[in-house]
């Protein structure tokens, strides 16, 4: 069985790496930095992280304003809150004007079963994919997550990057190279085709 690693930790560590390289990268969180792992960025760059409290719509608006001012904001919370609670703000302030905001959410799908239905994001992909101009990516493991975060930081335009809570088996080795819009064949076969994203790949 493949070793497992946390996609959330890969996100947090990659943010720190990018923050050292680019002073324009800033991070926003909605009182969940220990869960989304943005606290790793906060520890090194306390002046470049903004905790917006339990006010996700406000966080999205602030991120849009920072992007309009030339910053590269990464805004994080649980997947159930973005785009669910913030759909109008994401639509009007980020997707339509094509603001360079990276929305990175965690605790997606039913991987947070113990938190109850209020925290199970099962509609977020449908909402995000309905917005023209919003690039949606669901990494399959920690290696892919790190590459996706680096790619998003270097690519102009809005992103919705969906991560899960549990650690995932490493299905990609360190030689794997993520390409936006390209599929990866995990196993060849002739009898059936299974298409999967994120946690389903493992």
From TrEMBL:
Pfam family, one: Transket_pyr
Reported cofactor(s): thiamine diphosphate
Domain Transketolase-like pyrimidine-binding as annotated: residue spans: 5-170
Signal peptide: none
Keyword entries, A-Z: Thiamine pyrophosphate
InterPro entries linked: PDH/Transketolase, THDP-binding, Transketolase-like_Pyr-bd
Family, per entry: Belongs to the transketolase family.
Protein known as: Transketolase-like pyrimidine-binding domain-containing protein
